[in-house]
Amino acid sequence: MTIAAVALAATSPGAAVQEIERVTEVADISGLAASPDGQWIAYRIERPSIAHNVIDTQWYIVAADGRSPPRPVGRGAHATWDSAGVIEPGQAIWMPDSKSFLVRARRDGRIGIWSMRIAGPSSPAFEADGDVERFAVAPDGKLIAEIGPPRDAILRANSEARDRGVLMDEQVNLAGGIYRDALHGNETGSERWTGEWFDSAPLLWDAPRKVVAHDPNAGIDAVAVARERALLDAKPPAPPEDAIAAAIATTACNRTMPRCGPRRLSSSLPLGDGRWAVTTIDGVLGQRIDIWDDRAKRLKILRTARGFLNGGRREGSRCAASQDALFCVEAAADQPPRLVRVAFDGDPLHVVAAPNLNRARDKLIVEPVAWRVGGSRASGWLLRPKIPGRLPLFVSYYRCAGFLRGGLGDEWPLRALAASGIAALCINALPVTDESAQVRYDNGLEAVRTAVEMLDRQGRIDRRRVGMGGLSFGSEVTMWIAANSNLLRAASIASAQIEPAYYWFNIIADHGRFKDNFRKYWGLGSPDENRELWRRLSPAANVSTIEAPVLMQLPEKEARLSPELHARLIAGRKGELHIFPLAPHIKVAPRQKFAAYVRNFDWFRYWLQDRIDPDPEKAAQYARWASLLPVEQDRDSTNRTQRSRSAISRSRK
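-> structure tokens emitted (653 positions)
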């Protein structure tokens, strides 16, 4: 037995589950805000809980001099998310006296404004009969709040939809359901299309809003005047054009990575006295902060990061500034989010808060990789255990930003796979152009093919055992590779694929100019037009060429969009479908995310390593998988099936 085999045999299923639990519950940081007097920095920690199936939030403050540890000032209730499943970052607005800051928080089913004090307990600052959707603080200390429809009105609208029926119009997502088809916080509610691509919102999203000016001292509410309403739409000041040009043009070249490629602006922050903090991002999604002195017209690099160095998980989120330093969230491929203080005078980076496990203990090698794909350079991150020999490979293709948890959408447990002996490669998608969908898919195929060839030449992987998974565009590329190559031994997708049903479900309301967007991004009209292009692009029409078994873990509202693909894969014994009720495009409920992680882990260990979890409760799962057609009719795959069935029989005894 090789050293690698010995290491793999020692892998404990229990240890893998613990690692997946830790990744599911990785805490994020957002909402960074500096007090007007420059003495304090406020921020929010968001921590998913599998046990409670919520994302708890807690607000903290830390002294701007960095000399004392942070301290909690109040709970922020449970995090909320948009219709795509992206967590809405925290927002803190300081009061003019710097003694407290305000946040939105859901309590007792209603979102109001809460006051977080630097000394004393948190308390409600403003509530109304509807949710506070946006707010601002006027120079005189008044709270300006935009209030959504009354809660009772939304409940009545839901009841009417159930009792009287719903007119099929441009707001109705027939695939998503009509009544209580989405999770809002801990409550279910109905959603409707907003007209912006696939965005949706709760019922009455288009009802008129009222804007109130609340005087916290007098306790009086009044209708906000125009100048007060304008505060809700106030945008941060833009940096000078020459500051942006200088930051983008200045590039620290690294021949092993494509950092000489075009940079772009991520965010900017005024520092006073004509100075700006300008954050740019490079081709491998590493950020750099420069300080621009507008009076001297001079740019100085403050800090370069391998990953994100900003105000949260979103690329464009901003750090917070005190007089002497920036406070930022640092997150890299091997570094979970932590709050750091970046001093302007060049002092060493100071870690302010590290709410996540120190990943140095997991004994994984996390390294950047780059290679040529035609005239372009592809890049990504490779995670592997510290064991020699050729390993199976899992590939995720789309976006590898910040801390690597599970690819875009966080569904494939990269670290647990690597710890179990499956190298995990996350590839940043090649730059999107105006080319056709087939060209974009072919670019993805070539990026994966050349990466596999490179790692094979280096003796790192077993190219006969390659798996792949993806969400959204990543799922489309996964299915394209499965149908148009023999690279994959197993695949996994988390979102819908185009086929005639996908078109008709969406065109029935033509929400968000679906017809125009569909033609723009896929080059397709109705299934009655250009049938040959439909046949090439639709995975459902190419199931006969798919040899890799496909695990499908889809939100309920997307599962209905690809019935032909599901039916053909299942009938052909080439895959199975798991449907997640109430889930948005990106699964966000901790238990759903954990379940998807674990099933993907088991799936790829089964197909790429011939291994099963001996847990008796999983016997039915492995019995189903053993009944699927082997990847290839050779001795290895036949032996894999026989070993799996024997192990399943033993687990039942």
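The radius of gyration is 26 Å.
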